[in-house]
């Protein structure tokens, strides 16, 4: 993993570039890094602010032989790789299931996993990781500032971007191999559970345009969020948008 790195000084989106390369046959394990993204993509069709030399914007090309249903686990592997790297460098990262990394209640990293599959067979999976490493307060607009921040702002010191991305790639390789070996990604899920910001909290869940309130009980060994709805019914969520109430 990461033995081949394709580096762009400027790119529209590392996910888009990775997909184009994968469509042309690029092999498993190649990493695409951009110093800036001119059309960075977030989840749910949002854009992702990606100023030059300030963040870490990168994507993996993976060709796993797994059921497409398991794609959410790739996002958890990526989240766990980021959190572990933060731990190694002394940053207190938390995970907001399923794909956000949080510092002091603010989002400092997001993950967008895209896939190409045909007839239940994966062609490739592209997890894209965006880390707000050294962004300054003026890089965020008014609305974004309320929810998002950077590692530099939250920790008070600039981040060695090279060290952080190197550690994430190494951790990703290890955790991905472990996922391929057990088919469950239990090592990654354990990290995400230990560092979960949601377990025990009152949350708002948005599904199919509907909002409902619940309490998070656990992140189970299948990587599902176990919630108790108001009224006591317990359900396992496979994916979704969850926000902590009052935030
Ligand atoms: C989100 O939280 O909405 C996901 C954000 C994902 C951003 C990263 S930056 C690298 C990769 N390329 C993109 O265009 N998006 C992802």
From TrEMBL:
GO terms for biological process: protein lipoylation; regulation of DNA-templated transcription. It is an enzyme of class 6 (ligase). It comes from the Bacteria. It catalyses: biotin + L-lysyl-[protein] + ATP = N(6)-biotinyl-L-lysyl-[protein] + AMP + diphosphate + H(+). GO terms for molecular function: ATP binding; biotin--[biotin carboxyl-carrier protein] ligase activity; DNA binding; transferase activity. Residues 1-180 form the BPL/LPL catalytic domain. One of its GO terms (cellular component) is cytoplasm. Biotin binds at residues 13-15, 37, 107. Its EC number is 6.3.4.15. Keywords: ATP-binding, Biotin, DNA-binding, Ligase, Nucleotide-binding, Repressor, Transcription, Transcription regulation. Belongs to the biotin--protein ligase family. Acts both as a biotin--[acetyl-CoA-carboxylase] ligase and a repressor. This is Bifunctional ligase/repressor BirA. The chain holds residues 77 to 323 of 328 of the full protein.
